[in-house]
Automatic annotation (TrEMBL):
Residues 5-336 form the FAD dependent oxidoreductase domain. GO terms for molecular function: oxidoreductase activity. The keyword Iron does not apply. This is FAD-dependent oxidoreductase. InterPro entries: FAD-dep_OxRdtase, FAD/NAD-bd_sf. Keywords: Oxidoreductase. The keyword Iron does not apply. GO terms for cellular component: cytoplasm.
Amino acid sequence: MDAQVLIIGGGIAGLSLAWRLAPSVSVVVVEAEASLAFHSSSRSARQMQPSYGPAPIQELTRRSIAMVREISASLAAPILKPRPLITVGSEAEVHALAAGNANLVPLGHGETMKLSPDLRPETFAAAVLDDTAMEVDVPALVEFYRSQAEAAGAVLLTEAPVTAASGLVHGFAVVAGEHTITAGIVVNAAGAWADRVAAVFGVRPRGLVPHRRSVAIVSTTTPANPAGPMVEPADESFYYRPDGGHLLISPCESVPTEPGDAHVAAADIAELIHRINAVTSLGITGVERSWTGLRTHPADGLPVVGFDGSVPDFFWLAGQGGYGIQTSAALATVAAGLLTGEPAAGDAALAAALSPQRASLD
Ligand SMILES: Cc1cc2nc3c(=O)[nH]c(=O)nc-3n(C[C@H](O)[C@H](O)[C@H](O)COP(=O)(O)OP(=O)(O)OC[C@H]3O[C@@H](n4cnc5c(N)ncnc54)[C@H](O)[C@@H]3O)c2cc1C
């Protein structure tokens, strides 16, 4: 099988790139698992928060929300809905957080209580609001990327783990499960496995470390307002938000972990329930279900996107950390521009910040 571009990894990164490339380039996506988006991409909190992350992430998130808004309008049912983010803490903490973050606006104590009446008023002194934050239906977004890519001719292969590769004059011959694929360019969109996949191609790793993080859906004695905000403390040590009649909570742990099928640490959830019950009147009673996924990033915390620079025809789309959903549409667009040699005017600074050749990855 031949392709101009072979994408390794059928998570949201690989599928969104296939969506952008397939109309103009022949694309094959290979996924090790039996189903697409099995790992991190089906385990997120489904948020798109323009105030979250360093400047390049905030820029990509703003762009992605505009793009997903258009996608949502083209579908039978909307996939994007407002989910404002309230961050609470001491005056000093909240002031430090809001400084230079144009997406955060100060919120008075009374206004905070109005938006989030379940918070115990004595547990915080100050608050800020990101009222541009959204919740996205991730399965529907992934399905949009997948179906558009396939409709444009992309070939998607599951149960096709990449295990070996040899360099050709241009590109590579790649063994993926029972397939051998000859590709002009290989894209590494392998999430937690990205450094391991790089090694198969003789490419220098970029220090991409998976960190586990858990989420639980819990029931409460006081039902949370379905349209209520996500709430977190300024030190980002947990968050909670309404979720279909229940509450979604995360202890925001960030524990370095081997790539794999991550599992929840029950003690983290139990401790968090205790903590949320202390700062709210929601009264969490029990856990409905829980899951754990991996947030993979290099030491400087930014994604790694672009041609490797040392090994020709090898392209990185990895290291999205906790931002892979909220940046997917715009990041795939930037990546597609770099791959086809037609980067959009205005993307040069972003491309430099995310480059696999940046000094902070040495
Ligand atoms: C608890 C939690 C909450 C989160 N919340 C948010 C949020 O609210 N908003 C947000 O933007 N982000 C969030 N994230 C982060 C987001 O989920 C990730 O950034 C994103 O899913 C990464 O997508 P990916 O496609 O790179 O990785 P993955 O979805 O893991 O896809 C990589 C794929 O590559 C495949 N693969 C690996 N090796 C090979 C190989 N050798 N051959 C073939 N295939 C291979 C894997 O099987 C996998 O399917 C959260 C993450 C977690 C864990």
